[in-house]
Design a protein that fits this description.
Blueprint: H1 2-13, H2 23-34, H3 49-64, H4 73-82, H5 84-88, H6 111-128, H7 130-133, E1 136-138, E2 142-144, H8 146-163
Antiparallel strand pairs: 1-2
């Protein structure tokens, strides 16, 4: 009885977002990205469209490239205590919310290069699939379930694509 109650609670806490690991959903995200142009303006926030694309790529850089320093022991505890729920939890991101320093893109970028790069990351992730990510170590939060990875990927992309009206 206790175990079934725990399973029911776990089911209620998972986000019912579209599965970014499916070709249909990842292709839908790519279609939204392809609707952007170099002069697309945000509905809120200060980022330009090319900065937003670069910002969205940071999550993937932390997986596929050795480009960002991993947080130290104390910082990882803080991230798990105060940030993880926001990143992989059910609540949508708030407009104009603060971001981690690694995700701040302050310089100008090339729209076409950033768009192509983000699309390649999304396609690579989809091709690797859900099983590849189940219990995969994240840069900041330790091991995540495939559902947590999906939430992190999809929620972040959807938030910023909505920011730019696509």
């Amino acid at each position: 009885m206790f175990a079934s109650n725990l399973n029911a609670i776990a089911m209620q806490t998972t986000m019912n977002l579209p599965n970014i690991f499916t070709k249909e959903v990842s292709d839908g995200i790519v279609d939204r990205i392809n609707k952007l142009s170099f002069d697309t303006k945000p509905l809120w926030g200060k980022m330009t469209v090319e900065q937003m694309l670069a910002h969205c790529s940071v999550t993937y850089e932390m997986i596929y490239e050795n480009k960002h320093a991993k947080p130290g022991f104390f910082m990882k505890i803080m991230l798990n205590a105060f940030v993880k729920k926001t990143v992989v939890g059910m609540a949508p991101y708030r407009k104009n919310s603060q971001t981690a320093p690694a995700f701040l893109i302050k310089d100008s970028r090339n729209f076409e290069i950033e768009k192509k790069r983000l699309i390649q990351y999304i396609q690579k992730t989809q091709q690797l699939g859900e099983k590849e990510f189940n219990q995969k170590e994240s840069h900041s939060f330790g091991k995540l379930s495939a559902d947590e990875w999906n939430t992190m990927f999809y929620k972040h992309l959807d938030h910023h694509l909505s920011q730019f009206g696509v």
